[in-house]
Amino acid sequence: IADRREGIGVCGWILISLSFLLVLITFPISIWACIKVIREYERAVVFRLGRILSKKAKGPGLVLILPCTDTFIKVDLRTVTCNIPPQEILTKDAITTQVDGVVYYRIHSAVSAVANVTDVHLATFLLAQTTLRNVLGTQSLAQLLAGREEVAHSIQAVLNSATEQWGIKVARVEIKDVRIPVAMQRAMAAEAEAAREARAKIVAAEGERNASKALKQASVVLSESLAGLQLRYLQTLTTLAAENNSTIVFPLPINMLESFRQKNTGG
């Protein structure tokens, strides 16, 4: 916004001169009405005869305001939290969800925030709601649940490009909660349970295959040593006796069975 002090005309300069004269006549009483204190986190946009006095806002510190000709608007430069209420959104894969979020922004140009928009905070709030619905409408439910950070960055980029002329800088956008219908929650839970059961069956089959390979190798080793097979047999009997003490086990030597087998073969 250009500085237009030179375009106020003769009447404007007469009014400004009368204002200065009034301040001098009523000094020092007028000093209390003319001096304004601007805090560190504030800036003052001064209007003189309806025109913005300077391209840059005044403050912080003391600001001189002439009576009758000057008015000013204070602008807070601190970060503002904008809470977006839950929005009904239809995702790309035709699933209805409710999404809410929060936007953190601040005013970096007080002159633009005052001169270019009526209510900068209301405008930013409504734009954040619309942008949230538009961006999330292009995402599927899986993308929305898995990529919240990417979605938030996309919303922030759109807001920054739209609010630059308002003197707004969006610092951060966060998606707070994603609510989906109860029927969809049950369907997703059933799908996840089926996937877990399928993985469990695959793991069990892998275990059975590995166990069969190990048993095959053990049988080859035991077939080469008759004493080792008998020791394994005795170890199995010991395990059974330890698990159930009421069981009565009569061990039978394996070589006795071998001798009977040889006799039957010879006969």
Could you name the key traits of this structure?
alpha+beta; 3-stranded antiparallel beta sheet; 9 helices; 52% helix; 267 residues; disordered N terminus
Q: Unreliable segments (pLDDT under 50, ≥5 consecutive)? A: 1-5
Shape type: rod-shaped
Strand pairing plus helix content: what structural class? alpha+beta
Instruction: Tell me the fraction of residues in β-strands, as a range.
Output: 15-25%
How confident overall, as mean pLDDT?
Answer: 81
> Which strand order do you get reading across the main beta sheet?
3-2-5
H-E string: HHEEEEEEEHHHHEHHH
Helix percentage range: 40-55%
Query: How far is it from the N-terminal to the C-terminal residue, by CA?
Result: 121 Å
Radius of gyration, in Å, reads 42 Å
Write down how many β-strands occur, each being a DSSP E stretch of 2 or more residues.
Answer: 8
Number of helices: 9
